[in-house]
Structures are given as structure tokens and as C-alpha cells.
Amino acid sequence: MPREFVILSPEMPGDAAFRAAAEAAGEPVSMTLDAGGLMARFHTRALDPLVTVLHPRRITPDVLGPELARLLPGRPVLHGLRPDAVAGLWWSDVVVPWGPAEVAGVAVAERLAALLGGVLVDRASDFRSADAG
Q: Which domain of life is it from (predicted)?
């Protein structure tokens, strides 16, 4: 089972950000774009998977906004946000395989989030908001 992350960002991920983020791996990385450029797959030189960024979706109050608290419960990035405050953000699912390439894959994901002015949220981490008991 891979590590799962979410990038929440004000900018939609695209080719330029994907290519710039690939440099964070610290090793030569190849990248392919699928789904009309909306899914990026990063690989090591040996074609081992490094990180996959899935089709980004715009967060709207009526569709994903109310779901954020359910999908990412207790995450500090969501603490105190009203559904209309997240409208316009992009939600991008990110998958990083466990194993030798994990550190480089996470570095690429972190760099991509930073380039987009967003945050990388580890879906497995057990964050609690300040009011959680």
C-alpha cells in the first residue's frame, strides 16, 4: 500500500510546476503526463515509480467543501476554515510508493506543493485540531 497525500493549493498543478518539482528528487527523474496533462507520473532512471499526482479537482463549497472535514479530519490546514474559504483551492491526490524511492518521492511532492503555494497533507498522519480533545 502506498503513502497517500493531498496537495491543497491555490494554483492548479501543471507541466511547468511538475518539471520544476522533479528537480527536488536529487537524482535524474523522468516524467510522463497522462489524461491530457492532468496526471503526472514521476519515475527513477530505472523506471521505478517515484510519485504520481492524480487529476486535480477544484474545491467548491457545494461539492467538496463540506467533504474536507470528513476526508481530512482534524487537519491543522483545515482548522477554522469555512467551506466558502476553501472554494477555489485545488485538491490533488498524490501517491508515493513505500521503499527506496519514498524519500525522493516525498521530496518531489513537498516541492510541488511549495511551488503551487499550497500545502502537502499526509492522509495517514493523525493530526488533531487545537480544539480536539
A: Bacteria
